[in-house]
Amino acid sequence: MVVAKSEAGRAATSYFRTANPLPSLITILGLGYFGWMVFWPESIPYQSLGPLGPFTRYLLDHHHTLLHNGYWLAWLIHVVETLYAMVLCKSKGITNTSTQLLWFLQTFLFGMASLYYLITYRPRRQKQT
């Protein structure tokens, strides 16, 4: 019985779950395209992008400052999500340093696609005997 409790405690200290691939891919592609629009707009093949091409051109022509600020705001939000993930790790008893690093990196790169699993994680409470 003592072994089971220690194993349960160890599992809680090192809980990690990889983010769902589809939302993660959408996040990476979205931030990648956003960065491409902001930093290298001259290299975008607008005519090859279908309806996204003229829309992108319009945004760049009429709202470049908003796009630039929005890009940095998106990364700031990812940083805040990452800091929140670290707070959640501590509050949920995830104390393993390498596991916390995994949550840190995954949340920084994928945002809510990762943070969702940490928010919904409910560690088992050990019964007091």
UniProtKB/TrEMBL annotation:
Principal location listed in the UniProt entry: membrane
Annotated coiled-coil segments of the chain: none
Location of this chain's protein in the cell: Membrane
Domain of life: Eukaryota
Membrane topology, as annotated: Multi-pass membrane protein
GO cellular component: a single term: membrane
Assigned keywords, A-Z: Membrane, Transmembrane, Transmembrane helix
Membrane-spanning residues: 21-39, 70-89, 101-119
Keyword Phosphoprotein applies: no
Pfam family, one: TMEM254
PANTHER family: TRANSMEMBRANE PROTEIN 254
Protein name according to UniProt: Transmembrane protein 254
Species of the source: Sus scrofa (Pig)
